[in-house]
């Protein structure tokens, strides 16, 4: 199987020209830690941002079983009780626990050859959220923060990094790391409406508008007399806060027609997927919906019968809805957890942590639907073809979104590529 | 705990697969087991080094989860939704019936051995002619989804020794009792502690009623499963037995055991009604004897692996168990 070491997207040549043109013109750039990135940013990102690409990450917290989802091994000693079913893609079979997904595989690519080696929840999470191993003294940004940085708009009136994780087990907030607080997630934990986003009831709408107008008046007057980036940033922050306050309705699914709510169903995961669609439709570039808790050390098959039904229904509803609205071609849906589960079935009919040969799926934006990359052996114990790690997956995700996966951020004088050194995208799953 | 009764492991035969069910013709050394390799096997328990023999012919396509004997005919059920009739003399399958839309959890024979009864995750209980395999009736009192909108499961079925009653039990702890002649519902019980729904930490469920057994006179119904589980990643909850005077809905006993945790997978009443034997486990197994006068656990033995099924000889001296990677023989006696 081929993997390419360069970005072959249609945008790339144009972007390179834009980049070179911008550099030749000697454009002045803001002196911040991403100054080199800034060279590209001006020329490249403007084009990307126009395209309004977005990501929804369905995070299968705790580690879903690849054998009960994307890489079934019916009849194998390790295969469990469930059958494989034929999908709409000839020759591609997935678990019978995903019957609705089986009818939508023309839009989805499956990677069956992740070998990420780290099989503890914390370590696996850090790896699969950042695409690299941790290093002392460096706070690497999570995928959502990078996407927000690359695809978000400075002048956006909606949040650009939203993370929903309402179960408490394995709850991890995510961080923008060295990218700074601007790209930290809006983290929803206790309920699905952001806290403190609404106007205080003690302040009337008229008062609220009057205060904003007064603030604008003084801010404009002040900024005319003081030429300072800090002042501009302050003004931008206020604009953003006002935008976020106005976006609370995006989290309110009661605004959706009842028929649409029924399509997603009554489960929390379904309602969060519906919110995710509302958010990306409004221009939010990255939304993570974490569905806990797949850690099935006991009764793996019962657990997957329950959770796969939820995943199958909600993911299918989301794909259909995005497709119907013309959003799927610009929205990448990633289904991923921190690792998979052991082929060995333990004494409690469970499967334990396993990072040596597991699967994920990519749907929509930039993805070759129906593609299958990688292969595991007959028991699902090892990768026998197309082995990739977390960094390669990140390179694939970035490339699918039209982001140069070799792009570098500067942390002081240290260049840090957005996907780790030595990584390359999986060409076979890219459109 | 008194020591009147004692359970002792007599033999252990290690296997490479997971054995979910066991059946034994009365007075025979042969036992039959259903396997995770989709096969049904005959096993000679009298042999010094017994080798099991796979029954031939049409095979299941998934785990074999239940076995029932009707004379010389063995009926197996599977996650594949099929029932297969086997001629034990010929060691061959003789009939395959597409019985349920989803996974069949248990199959039993009526005491007169004329009918076969199956329960499955389509939440249906179906009654079959034991000889012809014709469907006689189907009924349910079990919701397809849990209160939290996920698929439910119908794990357990039992027939009273006199053949008058049937009982079915599901994941959320609901039991329905049926007239075995008319298939009309005649009673129901609730055992909600058997079902653990974790809405906060892990947001999924575990547990369920895994076993049912009527007392010899049919007046009492024992319900087996697991108590409330804290960390539902594991089966780390107390084994739980509830015993009812089912016609009045009176709960006689709740017996939870934290020492040997896990699911009670099967229950056998002593004909006198004085005690009952139950077996199951988490990653390890257990055999418990509970006194039905005091409602106390009076004998217990640990198994090396989870026990999925058991069969007891007519004299109540030998117990054969099938479980994770092993078949075992145990003896019951007084010390």
UniProtKB/TrEMBL annotation, chain A:
It comes from the Bacteria. InterPro entries: Alkaline_phosphatase_core_sf, DUF1501, TAT_signal. PANTHER family: BLL7424 PROTEIN (PTHR43737), DUF1501 DOMAIN-CONTAINING PROTEIN (PTHR43737:SF1). This is DUF1501 domain-containing protein.
From TrEMBL, chain B:
InterPro entries: WD40/YVTN_repeat-like_dom_sf (IPR015943), WD40_repeat_dom_sf (IPR036322), WD40_rpt (IPR001680). PANTHER family: F-BOX AND WD REPEAT DOMAIN CONTAINING 7, WD40 REPEAT PROTEIN. It holds the Pfam family WD40. Keywords: Repeat, WD repeat. This is WD domain, G-beta repeat. WD repeats lie at residues 97-138.
